[in-house]
Design a protein that fits this description.
alpha+beta, 4-stranded mixed beta sheet, 29% helix, 34% strand
């Protein structure tokens, strides 16, 4: 899965947009984030300026699948 697909899937299952941040970077408060850092993809929970549970992937598909599984549980 690529980032565009990920974004579409999250919209389709009705995950609130204020729960996640896709490729925006920075450290938004209390959001799951997926960002690109050079050749790597980072997935983490941003809280109070910290990256909690940081996972680093060298593959976009793996990072997107991991992110989707983390965030999909918030679907309404």
């Amino acid at each position: 899965m690529k980032v565009k697909e990920l974004e579409q899937k999250l919209i389709e299952i009705n995950v609130p947009k204020d729960i996640y941040s896709i490729l925006k970077g920075g450290l938004p408060n209390e959001q799951y984030c997926i960002t690109r850092d050079g050749d790597n993809w980072e997935v983490y929970y941003s809280e109070r300026g910290n990256k909690s549970g940081l996972k680093i992937f060298d593959d976009e598909d793996m990072a997107c699948e991991y992110f989707y599984n983390k965030v999909a549980k918030y679907a309404k």
